[in-house]
Design a protein that fits this description.
Helix content: 25-40%
CATH class of the largest domain: Alpha Beta
Number of domains: 2
Mean pLDDT: 95
Largest sheet: 6 strands, mixed
CATH architecture of the largest domain: 2-Layer Sandwich
Number of helices: 12
Radius of gyration: 20 Å
CATH topology of the largest domain: Nucleotidyltransferase, domain 5
Length: 369
């Protein structure tokens, strides 16, 4: 069964055709990063306009030479103006082709990304059918989400921990903006940090907070504090550190190449320290979550899962817990249509006539039918 997946939840216009939920036959992504760079973040109105301008081309390119048996689309969570573009395009296309429409959850789609592949040599191609693996622990970590999810079996989801404020990717972007590194910040912070750690492996890092909330606070909404994280205090700690050391952002004297970016060793030191606080916060929650059940796999998805330090540390965490770590191929870590089409083969949040009436759900929760 070939399914066309359409993804427009944020700032990527994406479409892909996937066979039987796993094999990627086509994958097209148009990124809007250059449009949002002048503003230091995603502007919803600009994002939706760009989706409108590119959706026909992107879908057309993905469908070249492909026949499809169904159309799938992300209907939440995400930016409402952006979601609407993809939903309307998917509805019209499904109607015109006379095929079913399937609406799926964006976060759940990220957790399917480790199971899709476009080459028989990919590690994902060697995995069993996801319905045969379980129970699993999932972590979707991106610019908009940082959430730990218990999956007793494939297609069943329960949130057991999450960020109470900023997502990890958002925390990276805000730090990059504060330090004058520009937008987006995740890749820059990763590369600068890796270069700094290689050059100064024994240098003590700035002890930024790892953001564990206090037990019993209202924002936990009943979730255990040990599985939740708050990055707002970390962001404030960075701001205060910069205010106390104004030369960090005021002077580039002595700048050196760290990972392809010219920054001073002092800035690189702060960047590496900040990233390590986020990575260790994620590792601590993952370690605690893995102790809660006899998981058969840990599934990692989302744009921040591409971060080299996140991958390295979580590999060690999973190894110590004797739990296999399943990670998406780098090209499938960000928002893409392949993860949407792949999930739709197994999990149909909304389908049939109900899907044709589906509307954008910006705050859609994981696990809804």
């Amino acid at each position: 069964m070939n399914i066309l997946g359409i993804e427009t939840s944020c700032d990527e216009t994406a479409a892909a055709v996937v066979k039987d939920g796993r094999e990627v036959l086509s994958n097209v992504v148009y990124t809007q990063i250059p449009l949002h760079q002048p503003y230091g973040g995603v502007v919803p109105e600009i994002a939706s306009r760009a989706h409108i301008e590119k959706i026909t081309q992107v879908v057309g390119d993905a469908m070249k030479g492909q026949s499809v048996d169904a159309v799938a689309v992300t209907y939440g969570p995400g930016l409402a103006p952006a979601l609407i573009v993809g939903i309307n395009a998917a509805k019209g296309l499904a109607k015109s082709l006379g095929v079913p429409l399937i609406a799926v959850n964006h976060i759940e789609a990220h957790l399917h990304s480790p199971f899709i592949y476009d080459s028989p040599d990919d590690a994902a191609a060697q995995l069993s059918d996801p319905r045969e693996i379980g129970p699993m622990l999932g972590l979707a970590v991106s610019g908009g989400n940082t959430v730990w999810i218990d999956m007793p079996e494939y297609g069943k989801y329960e949130v057991i921990g999450e960020t109470l404020d900023d997502a990890a990717g958002e925390a990276f972007d805000k730090a990059a903006k504060l330090l004058g590194l520009g937008y987006p910040g995740g890749l820059k912070i990763d590369r600068i940090s890796a270069a700094y750690r290689e050059r100064f492996p024994n240098e003590p890092l700035v002890p930024f907070p790892k953001g564990r909330p206090r037990d019993g606070v209202t924002a936990l909404a009943g979730l255990p504090a040990e599985l939740c994280v708050s990055f707002s205090g970390l962001k404030t700690a960075l701001l205060r550190h910069v205010q106390q050391n104004p030369s960090l952002v005021e002077s580039q004297e002595g700048a050196q190449d760290f990972g392809g970016y010219d920054v001073t060793p002092e800035v690189a030191h702060v960047v590496a320290s900040y990233q390590e606080a986020i990575v260790q916060a994620i590792a601590d929650r993952t370690r605690a979550a893995l102790r809660r059940s006899s998981y058969k796999a840990f599934v990692l998805g989302g744009g921040v899962s591409l971060n080299s330090r996140v991958r390295a540390v979580l590999t060690k965490v999973c190894s110590a817990a004797h739990v296999p770590l399943l990670m998406a191929k780098p090209k499938f870590t960000g928002d893409n249509g392949a993860m949407v089409a792949g999930l739709a083969f197994y999990r149909r949040n909304v389908s049939g006539d109900a899907a044709l009436c589906a509307d954008a759900s910006p705050s859609l929760q994981v696990g809804l039918a």
